[in-house]
Amino acid sequence: MSLDDLSGAGAWFLLALALGLAELFAPGVFLVFVAFAAAITGAILLAVPDLPLIGQLVSFALWSGVAVFVGRRWYHENPVESDDALLNDRAARLLGQVVTVVDPIEHGRGRVRVGDSVWLARGPETVAGERVRVVAVDGAMLVVEAL
């Protein structure tokens, strides 16, 4: 086996490496499966060096499908557990928080500061600088009440 024999397989292994590195820089738990398929296609090409390009592409497509199917199934059967049930529910995390009114709430509408951002708010007449409690979230607007 010479370096020329590895050129086709080497291209698939190089693609697998590139996809694996791309997964590191843009993690989404998807490219790793396609990288796995490229590596298997490269290994098949080592075993069957005369495999035509169409056979290589079919192998890559089939192994990509298998890898994504197995990976998705594994992730669904083994979810990541968290002690924080509201980890990805920002609106629910705001309920009960005490925030500061930035723009006075007049005629039922104003703006409040939550951390380092400002949200639209609906609630009773309140002057700027006063603190209020978040009681609900309506889309992108917080519903507040006086303390």
From TrEMBL:
Highest taxon above the source species: Bacteria
InterPro entries hit by this protein: Membrane_assoc_protease (IPR052165), NA-bd_OB-fold (IPR012340), NfeD-like_C (IPR002810)
Every NfeD-like C-terminal domain range: 92-145
TM annotation in the entry: 53-71
Secreted is among the record's keywords: no
Keywords: Membrane, Transmembrane, Transmembrane helix
Subcellular location(s) per record: Membrane
One Pfam family it belongs to: NfeD
GO (cellular component) term, any one: plasma membrane
Membrane topology label: Multi-pass membrane protein
Primary subcellular site in the record, as a coarse category: membrane
PANTHER family: INNER MEMBRANE PROTEIN YBBJ (PTHR33507)
Protein name in the entry: NfeD-like C-terminal domain-containing protein
Organism: Sphingomonas lenta
